[in-house]
Give the backbone structure.
Amino acid sequence: MGRRSNVRAPVVGACLVLAWASALGASEFQTNDLRHLFPGTTGELRASAISGNPPAAEVTLDGASIGYALSTHAITGSLGFSGRPLDVHVGLKHDGRIAGARLVSHEEPILVIGVSPKDLEAFVSGLAGLDVRKAISVGTGGGRKKDALDHVAGATVSSAVIKDAMLRSARAVAISRGLFGERAQPGEVDRATFAAKDWQQLLGEGAIAARRVTHGEVARGPGSTGGEPGGLFIDLYAALLTPPMIGQNLLGRPAFEQLGGRLAADEHAVLIAASGLYSFKGTAWRQTGVFDRVQLVQGARTIALRADMHDNVERLAVASGPKLREIGIFRISSSAGFDPTAPWRVELIVENQTGRGEAASAIFTLEYKIPGQLVLMPPVGTSEFGNASPLKQSAELWEQIWRSRTTEIAVVVAMLIALAGILFSHDVLVRDVARYQATRLVFLSATLLFLGFYAGAQLSVVNVITFVHAILSGFRWEQFLLDPLIFILWSFVALALLFWGRGVFCGWLCPFGALQELLNKGGRKLGIKQVELPWALHERLWPIKYVAFLLILGVSFKSLTQAFVISEIEPFKTTITLKLAREWPYVVYTLALLAGGLFIERFYCRYLCPLGAALAIPARLRLFEWLKRRPQCGRECRICAVTCTVQAINPLGQIVPNECIYCLQCQANYYDASTCLPLKQRAQRRAGIAAQSPGLPTSRDEADD
Ligand code: SF4
Ligand code: SF4
């Protein structure tokens, strides 16, 4: 879990300087920078000019190479959660571990304001010690020191993005500079290059592996050495057919193309062939479906060869090849764990009789490794490790994040299903006032405690601004998928705006809105008197929130960072994300808003909230009007206007849709015979008429209801 520094120096200026102090993709690393990237070193640190693919500078200490310095933006084009460029300089040691790192530029909203430079520094430099050769999830430690931060408090997604950019860039450099050792070629098989070669040439280059087994070896077992070799038992051959350099030469072009048509995208073809007395296929596979005399092994994984993977081949087309008794092609899927670029072996299983007449099996292995020239080094930007595409980078990262948050996702989805049920059947729910109030209390509590304080799923005007800019500058789903809860909530709210307007979010899913309402309810119970502003003043204060939203949006076109600063009008980060652990001006501002909300329910929502305004604008498209009013509303009765959570009912008794938060209080009133004045009057009339003429309705209004 992340921890938070208690020292919170003013951060805005520092972060703005941080954001632009360094040009993206530095052309060379300065000594001062190198001290951060290789902390604790004493002596003369120098960096060569940045070169190579991916670009990196070799770093020397007193003339001896100690590793590489690299820029994540130069290598992977790293983007932040905001969709804006982000650059971390990283020091990478020869043992594949990160020596140190420095965040040199970013435009992450939560990091621009709200997180102190000290916390950021601690997080980024705390990633020192990560072994980039290991599979590391963005949420795991990866062998670094135990007291390092997993993420910056309140900035989980941005932290994951930073860590991901560092790992990918460092891996790309590690691979290209040979730091992965033996298994240094996690590239692709070359499926394009072809040059005519005969059997001997392929054999000489290692494209075909061969092993001869004699009768003598079989008699003594596979481990025996020396002695009379005896006659030929089997000459076994193996080759990877996928590259045309091997497959097309061995099979001939027509057969190779035919084979290509049969291979699925993730399949590779392995050739096993033999001459000699022993049949590696045997006959049992025709009954059992599995070859019992031969199997393929890679690392710790044994891949059984089955009949459905097998194609029999009568002869090879390659020139100067040996006379073969048996030839088989086996199609092997990568999903079986087979990596064509890594070494593998064919194991030949020979059942033998011991001297005492017991059966014993001997295994003879034929090792194979695809020649290095037939493995393409991953061009940085397309590979699993050296990914220069910000889109792919995010695509993999968001999948990791979604997998790590399945429980939270399930709870949010359950909440949204429940909310849809409540809103679609609200006129049933509100007929029982106690049931309605209990439902609302439970839901708002879940919104505040789970969505807000636990999961940090507070939508913000920053999301709206980021979305607008993404639309204008090239929309990428992957950027928005990085935070699953925010993505799910936004998707739901966007759809639900058409049904219920902004109220679906403001009334039910906004943690800060829920906090204000719950506090106000508590305050009323304690006897706090409510203030009702005169309607004329009330409606003239509404535009403030629209102005705030338009100001933030307008400024964002000039400077996103400045827009994020202005968006601090939202107390969400202070209250929900950082739980009041901020500099005192932010805390005082937030407490003042909450105090105001004790006297004027949802004071902030009514007049100041730019997100509420941003949601109200598209909510004009609302297709349905499901909230009921009576002809008497506003004329004879003002109870709903007085009890409305946000004073969204005008003096004429009409609901102002832009302001309504769909709390359903007026609908509970509508059906409550002890509250609604027309219902009370009707009951009285009924009682009077019933006394004179039982069974007759007194008006059309009554007949309808
Ligand atoms: S108006 Fe703002 S604070 Fe209030 S509920 Fe809506 S989004 Fe939340
Ligand atoms: S009381 Fe009625 S009009 Fe007022 S916010 Fe709730 S649903 Fe909307």
